């Protein structure tokens, strides 16, 4: 009973990626939801790489500059992302250190590698099958937003300790760079057209 | 009947992998997944619109509560401080941290609230069997575009991490807004389990004035 899978493109049709309706190829706007139609986004790869590079550029200062500046009783200390993780680990909160490490280092780096691999492997043969690459895309799309955890932690910590005379905590410039990096790589993942994974 | 002979109005294509499939009526709680990539394509639920409306309204009220009540209480060396999300935004409303404050408030309050409002705007007339609201298609489409940028659930984890982090230097306790937010996340997940895009799109489509489809 199983028919072979036919894609809209092979059937000579164009599909709406927003509401899933299909149309003859000359229609350029979905009549149901109003989204622009294209069989494959022609400049998708360029947009993926543009956002990817922007994200990488923002990720470098995010790791070098201080994420959080703490001043207590006249002395000021600043900690970067990795410095904050090490501090948490040393002060006896390994589970929290692991959450921050995963959200701020493992997920962003994994995301850069995965998006680059997905974009690169569209044009060249790879050993990774289509199903596996599609799964990788789904994971990247789902997990990317979770990197924002550390930005929220910094904002919360700073706003709370702000009113305190004994110690004050301020977000560093890295917090903004990091938030921008997460937003840019989310855009890179959204610009990727997963339908191209399945094209011959 | 083969796929090629199916009328275009009954054909759909997976948004992730472009595989064509035929719309078949499903019962409540049944799911249709993509034959090629396993993406969930349709998941109708009975009474879905009313439930989504109820849960979205609840979520909007909770967001309003969470905005102005303290989410953490902090006390150290006889000093006391508590901060609401509103206070957090105001703390950084000037200087080079402004973009950070704007982003945080947008991700956890403005975008979730806008998304919930757009869903209500679309679904309330439809659930009352009235014609679809003006620009309902555009409104619902925008709510789907905003989906990845709505980060209330991530904020909850962020507050929990901050709680443990600050616990080292002062005594902290979660405030009303923290619990409100935690409950909000559950309500939003629940609401999303009733959101079936195909159901909503076809309701918008069939209640809007007919536009000529052209030769298919």
Structure description:
The complex is a heterodimer of chains A (200) and B (216). Chain A has helices at 44-64, 81-90, 94-121, 130-143, 149-161, 173-191, and strands at residues 14-15, 22-23, 68-72, 75-79, 167-171. Chain A is mainly alpha-helical and 200 residues long. Chain A folds into 2 domains: 1-39, no CATH class; 43-198, Up-down Bundle (Butyryl-CoA Dehydrogenase, subunit A, domain 3), CATH 1.20.140. Chain A has a 3-stranded antiparallel β-sheet with strand order 4-3-5. Chain A has a two-stranded antiparallel sheet with strand order 1-2. In chain A, a hairpin with a 6-residue loop joins β1 and β2. In chain A, α1 runs antiparallel to α3 (94-121), α1 packs antiparallel against α6 and α3 runs parallel beside α6 (173-191). The mean pLDDT of chain A is 88. In chain B, a hairpin with a 2-residue loop joins β5 (72-76) and β6. Mean pLDDT of chain B is 86; it is low at 210-216. The longest helix of chain B is centred in the middle third of the chain and has 30 residues, at 98-127. In chain B, α2 runs antiparallel to α3 (98-127). Chain B is elongated and about 75 Å long. Chain B has 216 residues and is mainly α.
Mean pLDDT across all residues of chain A, rounded? 88
Neighbour order of strands in the largest sheet of chain A: 4-3-5
Please tally the β strands of chain A and state the result.
Answer: 5
Radius of gyration of chain B: 22 Å
What CATH first level of the largest domain in chain A would be assigned? Mainly Alpha
Strand content of chain B: 5-15%
Number of separate helices of chain A = 6
Biggest sheet overview of chain A = 3 strands, antiparallel
The SS-based structural class of chain B is: mainly alpha
Total discrete domains of chain A? 2
CATH architecture of the largest domain in chain A: Up-down Bundle
Give the CA-based shape of chain A. elongated
DSSP summary, beta strand count of chain B = 7
The helix fraction of chain A, in percent, is 40-55%
What is the molecular shape of chain B? elongated
């Amino acid at each position: 009973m199983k028919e072979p899978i036919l894609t809209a493109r092979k059937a000579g049709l164009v599909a709406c990626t927003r509401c899933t309706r299909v149309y003859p190829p000359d229609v350029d706007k979905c009549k149901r939801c109003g989204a622009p139609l294209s069989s494959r986004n022609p400049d998708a790869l360029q947009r993926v790489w543009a956002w990817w590079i922007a994200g990488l550029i923002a990720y470098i200062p995010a790791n070098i500059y201080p994420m959080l500046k703490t001043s207590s009783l006249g002395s000021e200390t600043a900690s970067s992302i990795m410095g904050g993780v090490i501090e948490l680990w040393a002060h006896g909160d390994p589970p929290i250190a692991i959450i921050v490490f995963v959200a701020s280092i493992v997920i962003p780096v994994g995301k850069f590698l995965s998006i680059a691999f997905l974009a690169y492997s569209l044009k060249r043969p790879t050993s990774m099958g289509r199903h596996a690459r599609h799964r990788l895309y789904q994971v990247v799309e789902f997990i990317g937003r979770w990197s924002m955890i550390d930005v929220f932690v910094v904002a919360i910590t700073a706003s709370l300790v702000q009113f305190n005379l004994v110690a004050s905590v301020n977000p560093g410039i890295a917090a903004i760079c990091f938030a921008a990096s997460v937003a840019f790589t989310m855009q890179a993942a959204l610009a990727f057209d997963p339908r191209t994974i399945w094209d011959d | 009947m083969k796929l090629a002979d199916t009328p275009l109005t009954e054909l759909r294509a997976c948004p992730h992998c472009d595989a064509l499939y035929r719309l078949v009526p499903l019962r409540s709680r049944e799911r249709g997944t993509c034959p090629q990539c396993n993406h969930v394509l349709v998941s109708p639920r009975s009474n879905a619109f009313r439930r989504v409306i109820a849960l979205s309204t609840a979520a909007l009220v909770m967001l309003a509560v969470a905005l102005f009540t303290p989410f953490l209480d902090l006390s150290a060396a006889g000093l006391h401080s508590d901060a609401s999300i509103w206070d957090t935004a105001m703390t950084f409303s000037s200087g080079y941290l402004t973009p950070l404050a704007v982003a945080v408030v947008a991700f956890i309050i403005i975008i979730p609230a806008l998304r919930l409002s757009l869903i209500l705007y679309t679904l309330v007339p439809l659930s009352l069997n009235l014609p679809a609201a003006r620009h309902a298609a555009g409104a619902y489409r925008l709510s789907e575009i905003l989906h990845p940028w709505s980060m209330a659930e991530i904020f909850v984890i962020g507050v929990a991490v901050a709680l443990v982090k600050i616990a080292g230097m002062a005594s902290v306790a979660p405030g009303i807004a923290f619990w409100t937010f935690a409950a909000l996340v559950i309500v939003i997940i629940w609401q999303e389990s009733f959101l079936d895009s195909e159901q909503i799109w076809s309701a918008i489509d069939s209640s809007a004035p007919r536009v000529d489809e052209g030769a298919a």
